[in-house]
Give the backbone structure.
Amino acid sequence: MRSNLRVRMVAEFLGTAFLVAAVVGSGIMAERLANGNGALALLANTIATGAALVVLILTLGPISGAHFNPVVSVADAMEGDWIGPVFFRTSPRNSPVHCRNDGGARHVWDSADFRVAPHPGGAGQFLSEFIATFGLLCVIWGCSRSRPGIVPFAVGGYITAAYWFTASTSFANPAVTIARSLSDTFAGIRPADVPLFIVAQFAGGIAATILFRWLVPGLASSAKDMVVHHAAEIELPARPR
Amino acid sequence: MRSNLRVRMVAEFLGTAFLVAAVVGSGIMAERLANGNGALALLANTIATGAALVVLILTLGPISGAHFNPVVSVADAMEGDWIGPVFFRTSPRNSPVHCRNDGGARHVWDSADFRVAPHPGGAGQFLSEFIATFGLLCVIWGCSRSRPGIVPFAVGGYITAAYWFTASTSFANPAVTIARSLSDTFAGIRPADVPLFIVAQFAGGIAATILFRWLVPGLASSAKDMVVHHAAEIELPARPR
Amino acid sequence: MRSNLRVRMVAEFLGTAFLVAAVVGSGIMAERLANGNGALALLANTIATGAALVVLILTLGPISGAHFNPVVSVADAMEGDWIGPVFFRTSPRNSPVHCRNDGGARHVWDSADFRVAPHPGGAGQFLSEFIATFGLLCVIWGCSRSRPGIVPFAVGGYITAAYWFTASTSFANPAVTIARSLSDTFAGIRPADVPLFIVAQFAGGIAATILFRWLVPGLASSAKDMVVHHAAEIELPARPR
Amino acid sequence: MRSNLRVRMVAEFLGTAFLVAAVVGSGIMAERLANGNGALALLANTIATGAALVVLILTLGPISGAHFNPVVSVADAMEGDWIGPVFFRTSPRNSPVHCRNDGGARHVWDSADFRVAPHPGGAGQFLSEFIATFGLLCVIWGCSRSRPGIVPFAVGGYITAAYWFTASTSFANPAVTIARSLSDTFAGIRPADVPLFIVAQFAGGIAATILFRWLVPGLASSAKDMVVHHAAEIELPARPR
C-alpha cells in the first residue's frame, strides 16, 4: 500500500528541487523588480513561497509525506512512523535577504536597515530558530490529528506568517542551515554557528512534539495515519493505487 | 471527551503567544522594510495576521476552542457553553500603527497622515469598536452553525478585511485594550478610555449574539457543538483521542 | 425549513452594510496610506473586498442566499426560485477610484493616468458592464451546480480578478449603479447613462443564465437546491435549525 | 453522462476568453497604476491570474475539464482519456512584461533591468519552458489522483508561485507561444524560436506524465476519473444533471 523507498526518495528530491526554485527564484526576481523596497520584495517572496509549499505538499504528500526536513522526519519517527532517510527541506528563510550572490542587487539591501535580529549568531538567533521550528511542528501535529487534509494549507499559511514574525535568519531546517554555511552569501552563517542552529531546530521540533503528546494523549497511537498518507486516506477510500 | 481545563489553558496561552508574535513581529518587520509606505506595511501585516489566525485556529481549535478573547468566551457562554476562564486574544488591531516603541521607525508614521478616525477616544472610536466586535461574532455564529470547519478561514478572512475598513485603533478585544493602555506606544489608549472601549466591544459581541438568536432560532440548542470542538467532531468521527 | 422573509431581509441588509463598509472603507484607508501609488491602493482594496465577500457569503448565505444584487435575484428567479424582493449588493467596483469625496486624496488619482476605459459612458462601458455581470453569473451557476459549498470562495476569487481585468467603472450591480448616479464622486455616472448600464448588467446576467441552461441541461431542475441553502444542505444533514 | 463535444468546446472557448482577459487586462491595469514598480505590477498580475485560474477551473472543469492547453490535452490522452480537439490556454506568462503595445507604459519596463533569463531564445529559455510545463503537469497528476476537488486551487497556487520562479518569458503553453510569435510586443518571440519552445513544453509535460506513471503505478487506470469530471464525481453523487 505504501510507496517503496525509491519512489519516495524521488518524490522528496523533486519537491525539494521545486521548493528551492520557488524560494530562491522568487526572491531573486522580487528583489530585481522591487526598486529597493524590501517590504515589497519580501511580500512577493512570501506569497510565492506560501503558494509553492501548499502545492508541493498537495502534490507529493500522498507519495512521500512531503517532509523535506530532517526535523519533521525525526518528529514523525518519535510518534511511531519512520518514512526513510532524513530528507531535505528548503526553509522559507532562504529569502531574498539570504540568497543573493549577484553584486548588482546587493546594494539595495546593504543600504536598507531591515534586520530585526543582530546578524551574528547568538542567543537571539538560537531562540528564533527554536520558535520557528517549534511553531512548524505545532501546526503539523495540531492539524494533522483532526484535519489531515488541511495540513498543506496550514503549513503554507504558517510559513506565510512566519516570514514576517521571526528574525530573518531563521531557517527551521537543519539541511538548509548546513547548505547556507557552505555558501558565500550576504547572510551566510558562520560554520561555527551551525551546530547551535541545528540544536535549536531539533530542540524546537522535539519540544512541540512532546507538548502535543500531552495536549492530545491519543496522538502517538494515531500518528501513523497522519502525516504521510493523509490525502490518500481521506479522499481515496476506494480508488486503485 | 473534552479536554480538561489545564490542557485548554495551555493551548490558549500558546495560541495567544504566537498570535502576539505574528501581529507585533510582522508589524515591526513590515514597517522597517516598507520605506515609509504605510499601505505596503499594513498589507504585509494584514496577510501575515490573517494567515496566522487561520493556522492558529486550525491548530488549537480542536483542543481549546481557540477563543483568545473574552468577548468570544462570553458570547459562547450565552449560548450554553462555558469553556473556562476568560482567555486572551490579541486583536489584529495591534498593527504597525500601534506597536512601535523604537524611535527609529516612528518618524515614518509620524510624517504620514493616514488616520481615518480621530486619535482621541470618542464616539467614533466607540462605534468602531462596536462594529468590529459585532462583525467578528456575526462571522463566528453565522459560519459555525452551518459549516464549523470553515470557521478558521472565515475569521482569518474577516480580520484581513477588517484591518482595512475599521478605524485603525479598533481592537475587538478587551484583553488587548487593557494591555494597550499599559504600554507607552504611539497610539496607546488613555487609561480613561479603556472602560468605554471594553463596553463597546462587549456590546458589539452581545448584540451579534442576540441578533443571530433571532436569525437562526436553533442556534442556542446546537451551540455546544459548534465553536469548541468543530474540527474534531466534523472530521474525527472514529479516531481515538 | 426556509427562513421567513423578514429574517432574510435583515440578513441581506446586514450583509450589504458590511460589504459597503469593506469596499468603501478599505478603499479610503488604502488610498490614504498608499502615498499615491494606485496599484498598491487597488491591491489592498482588492484583497479586503475579496476576503469580505467570501466571509459575508459564508456567514449569511445559509440564511438569505447572500444575493445583495438584483441581477442575481432575477437570474435565481429564472431558474425557478424566488427569494424575495430585489436586494442590494455593493459592487466591488465601488473601489478607491470611485468612492472619494475628500479633496485631499483626490489629487493622487487625478494626476495618475490609470483608466483603461474612456471615462464617459459608451459602448466600452456597456460592454464592460455586460462582461463583468456575465462572468459573475457564470461563476455562480457553474460552481453552485457541482460544488455549492465552494461558491463563496469562487465569487470572492472572481471579484479579486475582475477588479483588475474590467474597466474601472464596471459595477455588475444595478443597485450600486443607481446609488453612484446620485453621488458626487470622481467617477460618478451621469444619470443619463444609468439606464444603459442597468440594461447591460441584466443582459449580461441573463445571457450567462441562458448559456448555462444550454451547457448544463439539468440546471433549472436542480436550481432550487443551489444558491440559497447550499451550506446548510451540504454540511448540516442532521442538525436542528 | 459526459457533455457532448459542442458544449465542451464552448466551455473551453469561454474559459480561454476570460483567462486571456484576466491575464492581459490585469497586466495592463497593474502596469498603468504601479508607477514603474515592476514587483508591484507583477504581484497584482499574479494575484489576479491565480484567482482567475482557480475560479475558471471551478466553474468550467465539470463541463469541459478546463484544459485550455494542448499539453494538458495530450497528457490526458496519454493516460487514456481524450476530451476533444486541442484547446487553447493562455499562460500566466502573458504577464505585463509581454502584453504591452502602448508606448506610454513601455519606458517603465525598458528602464528596469528585471529579466532573469537572457531575452533571446536559447538553452535557458528552453529549460525554463521545460520546467514550467513539467511542474504544471506534476501538480495536475499529483493532485488529481488523490484529491480531484483540490486541483483548481493547486493549479492556481502553482501559477502564483511559477510567475516568480521561472524566467519571465516562459509560457507552459504551445498555443500562447504561437500567438505571441504573431504579436509585436516587447518580449515577442522570434518566429524561429517557436518550434523549440513548443518542443520544450511538450517534452516537459510528457516527462511529468511519464514520471508520475512510475511514481503512482495506478495512475493510468484511474486517469479517466480524474481531470475531467472531478467536481461532479466528488460532490454530486445524487443530483440530476
Summary: Residues 82-120, 223-241 of chain D have pLDDT under 50 and may be disordered. Chain D is about 65% helix and 0% strand. Chain D has one domain: 5-235.
